[in-house]
Write a structure and sequence with these properties.
This protein has 71 residues and is of the alpha+beta class. A hairpin with a 2-residue loop joins strand 1 and strand 2. The termini are far apart.
Length: 71
Amino acid sequence: STAVLAAEYEVNVVPTFVVFREGKPVNYASGVLGKEVLTEMLEGERTDAMRKQMYIKMLVYKSELLYNISK
């Protein structure tokens, strides 16, 4: 089921992109991603642009989580 897959791949944010090679996840990112980042994911690279975008999204997610907890 969808819930089982989400738990298996630790999907907490929609959308989440997972790149598989030979049946195994090799790259992942969550949130709205630009064309450059998606291309890098598919090519198997983790460039500085991708790391920066993922880090920013993580900070935003944590900020939203803290805000919701403090309500």
